[in-house]
Input
Amino acid sequence: MASRFKWVFLAFLAVVAGHPERCAGELPGVRIGLLWGQEEVAFSGPAGVTIQRARSGKVVAWAPPGERWEIRAQRGAMRLIGGAGRDWSTTDRLRLLPPEGGVVTVYGVGGHWDGVTDRDYRGVIEVLLGAGRSLTVVNLIDTETYLRGVVPSEMPSAYPLAALQSQAVAARGQALIKAGRHRAAGFDLCRTEHCQVYGGATRESASSDQAVASTRGQVLEYEGRLADTLYSSNCGGHTVNNEDYWPDESPVPYLRAAPDFDEADLGVEFPLAEAELGQYLKYAPVVNCNQPRRAKASKFRWWSVMPSEELRESLASEVGDFGELLDVRVTDRAESGIVREVAVIGRQAVYKIRGGAAVRRGLGGSNSASFAIEPIGRREEPPIAFVVWGAGWGHQVGMCQVGAAGLAGEGWDYWHVLAKYYRGCDLVRRY
Output
């Protein structure tokens, strides 16, 4: 019966999402901040680099293939230092251009997963002189090429193609809807998870390139407007309403909490009583995002023990001093299981922390806001520690990336996956 229901549900999703509609539009460009607040920047190019003034386009130098050059912030100007004693200063922005189809290597760029390393970038690299004698490095690139460096940075390229295609569509929507959030700093988007993780050409792979190319220009819209296609690593078995995690936001119709499993198959129906939820958080049910072959088990179910003093310091940094920590209690929980509010009970004061993001910070950066917490210690005495156990990794709003991989592994197409996580949206080709 469950199998029959699944295929009926798939047919329904196909009607809701369908293939993308077409609408005219130009391929947008984007400015990605790679480095900022730098005193110097080093670069090279496997096939050489042309260096020109940004405003006039005048070529000022040519860096031969593989030769390392530097740009330094010095006395209100930028100093270009190259081979053979080349030393030249300008107050103009500089642009670094590789040959057609080539890359520029920028040294010492941080990454979310692989630390600080030297990275290759397609497009144009622009170096700006900012306040405080610092340099900002920006990658000027078209959105589709940008996505080639985003998709494999946000999702393992070994995931099934339909999952990577879902990621490409969601990431394209994020690129368009977030563009300009760092305009004051001289770029549209940053390279970190604050916008989307971008690893440049260094992170590209054949499978993720295929996902980007096969979904070119496709985004989700809701009632004719670009959808905010939020996503996170692992929902732990249930996605979350946007306003439950960010309480200052209004409810978004397509960012609704939903189980990442068939409730009839699992025999679990939300909302759960607190005791039942505590048990649910302790075991590993068979849900879409329980994929130990594809993702760390600790992203699905996790636990930790925090000494009271350590937890007290973390909570105090969020709400202020409350004296000795006596207890932390969940005082409001959404139907999805996410904690919307905790009470911090101290010897001198009691505080409330509201919102999933703030609660996670208060707990020292917990993996998610879907958790249970208990004190450890003797009765009638302040606890010596707290045990926290929970589900999921990230904010759990929108698409569950590991869940998408699970569905793709069962044969779901990417528009079915997107329709599941963003209900009521249309798949549209913008360019």
